[in-house]
Structure formats: C-alpha cells, structure tokens
Amino acid sequence: MPTVTMTLEEYEALRSLITSERESEGASLADRELTTKPKRRKKSKYQKELGRQLKMLKKKHPRTKITALMKRAHRATKKALK
After folding, report:
1. What is the DSSP secondary structure assignment for residue 8, as one 8-state letter?
2. Tell me, what DSSP letter sits at residue 24?
3. In this model, does residue 30 exceed pLDDT 70?
C-alpha cells in the first residue's frame, strides 16, 4: 500500500469536506422524509361507528377480552347503521 503524506492543513481541509458532505446528505434526506408523507385513507362510516361502539363497550366492560367486545361492537354497529 502506498504511503500518503499530507500536511496538517490538507488533512483538516479533507476532514471538513467529508463532514460537510455528510451533513448536507443528512439534511437533504430529512427534507425528503418530511415532504413525502403517505396520505391517510378516509375512514368509512362503518369504521367510525365501530370505533364509537367499541369505545363505549370498553368503558362499560374494561376487563372483558377484546375479541368478545369486537363481536358485540360489530353487532351494535350493524344495528346502528340499519
């Protein structure tokens, strides 16, 4: 491997060039991440009502298993939207 000799000033200039490049890459990546957020899908009428029903049932029966509450919430939602 060849030996490379640099002065202290050349070495510091090279280091600052590398760090500034990394900072600019990080800044550009952060900008891209902020601008490209995926759009959320619209909640359906059914899904909104199911959330309301489930919330009410959880408040009334906090220790009941979620699977049982989901079944009850589904039935209540169908009834409410009829």
Report:
1. H
2. H
3. no
